[in-house]
Task: structure prediction
Amino acid sequence: MADKSTDKPIEVLLQERRSFPPPKSFKKSANMRNAGLFAKAKKDPKGFWAQAAKELEWFKPWKKVLEWDSPWAKWYIGGKLNASYNCIDRHLSNGRGNKAAIIWEGEPGDERVLTYRDIWREVNKFANVLKKLGVKRGDRVAIYLGMIPEIVIAMQACNRIGAAHSVVFGGFSAEALRDRINDAEAKVLITGDGGYRRGGIVPLKRNADEALKETPSIKSVVVVRRIGEAAHVDMHDGRDHWWHDLMADAPMWCEPEKMDSEDMLYILYTSGTTGKPKGIVHTTGGYLTGCHLINKWVFDMKDDDVFWCAADIGWVTGHTHIVYGPMANGVTQVMYEGTPDWPDKDRLWSIVEKYGVTIFHTAPTAIRTFMRWGTEYPQKHNMKSLRLLGSVGEPINPEAWVWYHKYIGGGRCPVMDTWWQTETGHPLISPLPGITTLKPGSATKPLPGVEADVVDDKGNSVPLGGGGYLVLTKPWPAMMRTIYGDPDRYVQTYWSRFPGKYFAGDGAKRDKDGYYWLLGRVDDVMNVAGHRISTMEVESALVDHPKVAESAVIGKQHEIKGQGICAFVTVKAGVDTNSALVDELKAHVAKKIGAIARPDEILFAAELPKTRSGKIMRRLLRDIADGRALGDTTTLADPAVVAKLKEQYEEE
Ligand code: PRX
Result:
């Protein structure tokens, strides 16, 4: 495995000297102010996590907190609960029934406000719809929708009846949707006639129809009408139903299933180092416990907050910081359908001002984009309501952090740089706003109840000041339980590199104060604008094109996206390599995977640099693309190949 961690200018990062102690207001009133809890949780992790679980409502208490047969975890054994009951019903009896749960704004400017009672009614009705369509406890339901309230309702309705949802990001292609449906053998697909994005229409149903040609497990399709006539959708008789038709006479009460703590709550696919995405499995009791607690602490969620996580629900951030975390905490949240620059580049800030958003969460790639657009856009709006900011998805460079703090947070809002993954369920390394002194660019330290380490190649802990691989050394409730249908891959991917330790796939360095500085992936996974894409997925899409013989894909440093996708391609004999082919190949990848995977650069190579055993040396390709001197080339079958490629790259 190539170690990319050394590629990063860590010395530059570690020279970062600015620090920001918690503001007095947070120290006084934050949900979590007890710094002693770190040591307490370390001493008695089970006791700590048992206490956290007690904040949920259980139909039946658990008998045992944890059973750990590494790497197989079971939490809250014997406990019974329901996620939708915890996220919705219990707020009706604690006085939050008429409180706004979701303040939604569509891209064209339409608005909807749904109270907790409204959501409760819709979820109950839709749960009954799903039952009527034959969905049973343990079944899987695929969801391919844009950012409209129905996506939240659909997910909560699934868990209410004990079906696992598998949300597929609306920007994914028909093929990506098909593969995910088939892997999970989903029975029902919930989609929409389309969604609005940057003034255009995302043809969700048409993509779905394409996918549905090869998804034998799907018996019914439910279609939300978001667009209307302009979407021009075909409804397939007997298979496709309009959401509003099915909801019209659905009963308003559906008894929540008493789920076992370890029953599957959802599957969410993420890229690994092979071309085949992994279905990450989360379970009910552990995930919801962690999600509830960490949202409450890291984002300091209070009853009068207006929380806004500007992520898409198609990613884990949207699951944890829109659907489950804020709702389990009963807060009001804002949800927005479209892009930040529609109709103009101040759209997000106008939403903050309009709804009085108090907590705002986004990704570094977005922050860098805002920086490029200029300060005039946030300065057009009164954003004094903001009190806390979040960042997630990729390392945040200190300059972007400081800009975010100053121009969005008005210099008064602490920035929570939260490190985590689809697999971990919620942030594991993150500051706490009432306790942690912040250092721009560092996700700071593991949260209470979380044990992390930085280890060397042999798995030995690296002393403070050094760098290596990030691992987690103790189980935590919201950890993934397995890869759907592929337990061996679960063991192989996460638990075999350093036996007994969870290998995150990230490089990290700790400074003398024990602060963690994340350095990016150390495997063949790219992080493109906060999206995880495997080099292999893009390579497979490229070689699927009839003119391509071979390809090697790497992540190349990119000012805004963190990493951009750079592909080296060799073509079949007799094929002309020209700019039309570059465009054709870029479009081909976008069609196979989705626009997020469209390569930024394609370079035609006569040959790719390979070891004598035939392995492509991506490390050298990264050197070429990032303009560095070439690393060790002694293991190459023909060192001339890479030298020539470097020359060619520099010329183009
Ligand atoms: O490389 C890390 C990066 O994103 C990866 C996880 O991607 P995904 O499962 O799609 O989840 C993204 C949202 C949680 C990690 O392995 N990453 C995530 N957050 C950070 C980060 N890298 C540095 N700093 C972060 N705060």
